Every structure is written in structure tokens, then in C-alpha cells.
């Protein structure tokens, strides 16, 4: 089943929408046929001083109260800032208040949410694997079924949570991954995959790596069939696609800029950028790394960058989504950009979703 959702992410934070406006947008999405609503988990975005950045778990609980159909998830949280027991309980609580609609979207974290708060960003992938293991253990725990865990970073001794989820066996875990090691972990532990900043070619390449990991880890056929190959994708409705693309292409290239894009598209002339230092030292307030990244990202060819984003009229946008469906996406999580946020939600629901629902009958 092909799914479509909206994300309350940087698009909503940058616009400075109030809580009431966000809830109204989510109510609209619920009533117009979307399948999911996701909320970003950032601490701040100081490059946009007027942005409003809110806690995702509190907002998702509020969204649960005004919606009836959509699944609700984080896009994505990182347990580096929280003990995994807090994440597990938050996901279970959201599932209960939403009557079984919760999704846990989770990643290994990033420096931009940690550095200024002096939270260590060391061994994030190793910690992430243990976090997922702990969360899965706690999902099935109870006072009569306490659990133990002995890891390098986390430890449980006869631990339990005292609430069970409505969704069985537990709220699904969508893992945000993009490197060889994290993709393997996604295939081993995940119920879904939720990346951002992808071309169809890169999505297909990474999907194959996840599927190989699922086979290596003897995942059941049911787990494979139900696995959600999701994608966080940007959409900008415009009557003049070329003009809009000219204004936004730099930002799109920055969002795409990662070593895997260079590898898959054989962009050897851009090689040499220190991605390791960038991902471990970059923070929103570090302008020097932002400048370096933008300068390097502009070298990504327009044709490659444009394949990652829906820009223009519905007729312009549909082929972009078709390419991603062919690459293996079965759940789109859309960030709508532009001044008419409510209109974009409605236009996509009335002019794009019906096209794909008809195609997938």
C-alpha cells in the first residue's frame, strides 16, 4: 500500500506557525486523505531567529487529540539526548493516546542538536544500536516480565515499563540511516526506513543494502512485506517551476550534500570535502562549516539535485514521485514549502494523491 504523509519540520518552524495553525494543518491532512503526520525533533535552528521550534512528543499528543485516522511519528528523534527508556515510554504513551497510531522515527543523532548543549557526540552509531536493543526489550516489559541488558553504554537490571502499546507487537520503528553500517542496522532491527535528502538512484542503492541486511538477519517474510520504505521529500507548488527552482536550488543541493550522493552519481570532481569533520563538528551556529558546505554543494549538477524535489505544478511533481516509487518508496513524508501551507496540503490531496491511488488499485 502506497502511503502519503506530511511533516511538520523545518518548513513549519521557519514559517513560525503557531500551535493552533499547526493543529489546523494536521486536522486538514487527516480529513483530506493523508496516511501519516510526522514531527521533527530539533533543539533549535538559530540561523532562523524567528523560527518556532517545539517538542515533538508534546505536539504529537496534541495532534492525536484532533485527528482520527493518520499515523503519528517523529521524523526523527535521537535517543542520544534522552535515555532509551524515555523514548520507549513516550512512543507507547503516544500510541495509547492516539488509539494505536504511533510510529517511532529514530536516528543516531547529529552534532547540530548537541554541541551547544555540551552533550557528547561520540560513538553515536554504537550507542544507537544499543538504544534500539533497549527500546525493543522495554517495549515487551512489564512488572511480571522485567528485562536485563548489559551493554557498553546502557544497562538494565530487572527493568520494566508499566504501560503496553495498543499497536502490536509495538509501535513500529522507522530508522533514519544513510551509511553502510546504519543501513545494516536498519535491516536488522527496523520496521521501516526514513531518510531525507535523496535522489531516486541513491534510494534504490540504499534500499538494496537494507534488503540484503534483512536477508542476512533472517527477517521473516511478513516483516519484509510490512517494512516501510519511507522518504522525507520536499514539495514546492508553483505556477512557474523554472523560476522557483532557480530560487531554491542552492538549498536543495545543500540538503543533498553527502558522500553517498557523490558515490552513486560518480561526482568525483567534488571529492575532498571533509565529511567526517563536518558531521562531527557542524552545528547550526558554526558559520564556517555552513559556508564550506554550501560552496562544495553548489557543484552538484542541477539535473541530479532537481530529481530529489517536487517543484512546480501537480503535473510537474507527479513524475518525480513516480521515479521514487520505481526506486522502491512506499511511504512519502512531505515537507510543503511556500507561503500557502494549507493550500499546498489541500492541492496535493486533491490533485496528486488521487492520481497515485488510482494507479495502485
TrEMBL record:
What keywords would UniProt list here? Coiled coil, Oxidoreductase
InterPro entries according to UniProt: F420-G6PD/mer, Luciferase-like_dom, Luciferase-like_sf
Where is each Luciferase-like domain found? 21-331
- Which portions of this protein are annotated as coiled-coil regions? 203-230
Give the top-rank taxon of the lineage listed in the UniProt record for this protein: Archaea
Which GO-annotated molecular functions does the record name?
oxidoreductase activity, acting on paired donors, with incorporation or reduction of molecular oxygen
PANTHER family reported for this sequence: 5,10-METHYLENETETRAHYDROMETHANOPTERIN REDUCTASE, PTHR43244
- Protein name in UniProt: LLM class flavin-dependent oxidoreductase
Organism whose genome encodes this protein: Marine Group I thaumarchaeote
Q: What is the lineage of its organism?
A: Archaea, Nitrososphaerota, Marine Group I
